[in-house]
Specification:
Shape: flat
Distance between the termini: 99 Å
Largest sheet: 2 strands, antiparallel
Strand order of the largest sheet: 1-2
Radius of gyration: 40 Å
Helix content: over 70%
Number of helices: 6
Number of strands: 2
Order of helices and strands: HHHHHHEE
């Protein structure tokens, strides 16, 4: 009767339960939560709490962006004011129409098209003869090296000397042809430049009106794409460490002083 009673009553102490049957779910859960919270704290401390320079760079990037945008907007407003009072034929719209008309007329000019075809032909002729000259020169360089090596080594170099002299004569005969072909190509290019000069001049005038604005737009794009990072400069000086070994010095001041080398922040 006593044996049956002892079988039915569960153990009242944890030490009476076999190790393999003891429940550890709560313990593992608590420890895993502590580990997870500790990991989150470590990551946050590493990338946020201990990185105040990121806030400096964000603030500087925002300030620089606003400054450059204000400068850009001021130039745009000045340009629009000048455009409003400019003669009818000097506005950007009028100049763009004139440029389009000039480009269209140039593409339809038979003399210009003939000159571009001639340039292509002259350039190809120059390419062929210059390629032959370069190939000959590469072989000559090899033979000349072998000839010099054989001569200084005291070996028989009569045959290699003859080959070298023959290649040199071929190069000397090809060089004037290369120069003549290049001169023909350049003369045709000058003719094309004369056709394109008015178009290039008007295009340059149009670009000049918005050149500074375009530069500021490019700068705004660069600021928007700028990543947060440690800026380091390796200095040309050395200093001893605790073991008296020379080590390279670095400067990371620009990480926080972000405007030290930026245009517009000289003062």
């Amino acid at each position: 009767m006593s044996d049956q009673t002892s079988d039915k009553n569960p153990a009242t102490k944890r030490t009476d339960i076999p190790v393999e049957k003891r429940p550890y779910g709560t313990t593992f859960f608590v420890l895993s939560m502590i580990l997870a919270l500790g990991t989150l704290w470590a990551v946050a401390d590493e990338i946020i709490v201990r990185r105040p320079w990121k806030d400096y760079q964000r603030a500087f990037n925002e300030y620089e962006f606003n400054m450059v945008a204000a400068r850009r907007d001021s130039l745009v407003q000045d340009l629009e004011t000048k455009e409003a009072s400019a003669p009818a034929g000097q506005t950007r719209a009028a100049l763009r129409e004139e440029l389009a008309a000039m480009q269209s007329a140039l593409k339809q000019s038979s003399e210009y098209l003939q000159a571009t075809e001639e340039l292509e032909k002259r350039a190809f002729d120059l390419f062929k003869v210059n390629r032959e000259y370069q190939f000959t020169k590469s072989i000559y360089d090899e033979k000349f090296y072998l000839y010099t090596e054989a001569k200084h080594s005291g070996h028989d170099y009569a045959d290699i000397e003859a080959e070298t002299n023959e290649l040199k004569a071929t190069m000397d005969s090809l060089l004037p042809i290369v120069q003549a072909k290049a001169a023909l190509r350049d003369s045709v290019q000058l003719t094309i430049d004369e056709f394109e000069r008015p178009v290039d001049s008007l295009s340059g005038l149009l670009q000049g009106k918005t050149q500074e604005i375009n530069k500021l737009n490019d700068r705004l794009t660069a600021i928007s794409a700028r990543s947060l990072k440690v800026n380091q400069v390796v200095l040309p000086d050395y200093e001893p460490n605790e073991f008296e070994n020379p080590i390279i010095r670095v400067d990371r001041c620009q990480t926080c002083h972000a405007g030290i080398d930026k245009e517009g922040f000289e003062d």
